[in-house]
Amino acid sequence: MVDVAGIRVGHCTRDEPGWLTGVTAVVAPPEGAVAGVDVRGGGPGTRETDLLDPRNLVDRVNAVVLGGGSAPGLGAADGVIEGLFDDGQGWPMREPGQVVPIVPAAILFDLGRGGTWRNHPRAGDGRAAYDAATSSAVAQGCVGAGTGARVGGLKGGVGSASVVLESGVTVAAVVALNAVGSAVDPATGRPYAAGLGLAGEFAHVGVASPEDVAAARTRAESLPDRMAGIPAMATTIGVIATDATLSKAQCQKLAGIGHDGLARAVKPVHTPFDGDTLFAMATGGRGAVEPADLMLLMEAGADCVARAVVWALLTATSVDRSAAGGVAIRSWSEAFPSALA
Fold first, then answer.
1. Distance between CA 280 and CA 259 in Å, rounded?
2. Nearest CA to 188 among 13, 12, 339?
């Protein structure tokens, strides 16, 4: 994600006793970024998404917040807004120095996974994520919005991926993977989207042994949610960014095509129990793109989302909060050790 010049990413990770949640802030350059959004899941939790409609006035955002905590977690965006206020960044108003920070947000469901139901990100956590935002490599795995995430019966997390196109345009994605569906082929244990990796990216990821596959299937069938016949509440959220110059309508389309990448990586996707939401941000660091190049850019965004899903799965680590009333979630690498070269 930070391969797009001007974009910074910061995490606040709450994994102390009783907690398993967090916030990820994707911060735009000081001048903001043109943005769009596409909500596909049946149970979304979002904030300030209507202003991203191409028909509406505001054409730039200052940050996008991804958080845990279900609906109460949307309050974490307040902390990011306060940080932007302090830095004088936002939509300019009448007088110099008078700005309104524009911060859309989306949340995923992780309530109770750490053991205490009401522990959710608050404004202070959003501020911590904003203050931690950096242009260094994005931390992946059980951090930020992915701290309490799970995908199917395995541990989810945060993943990121990028690519530089032949035109010189950079496209990147960061995803907090937390889905009802699975990101793993049940017949092989291999992530569905591992074949979309760039040269050698997922060369270390192979097919699991029949023993590992059978054991994983047995564990999945014995999960409490499966036994009760009630799918876990979920939601995968993320941001696609590019340094190209795009309009709000083009950003909206980029976010929408990004969901194609999510569909390549997770099955089933966009269920009534998922609030799957993707944002797109364009910094305008490079010029506008021709229609044919725009098509390639949007397809690259979808592939970055799919690759980010794989990285979220690979970098996540097992957690066990069952003794404190929370959950125990096994990571992909622990469930399918034979698949790792």
1. 11
2. 339
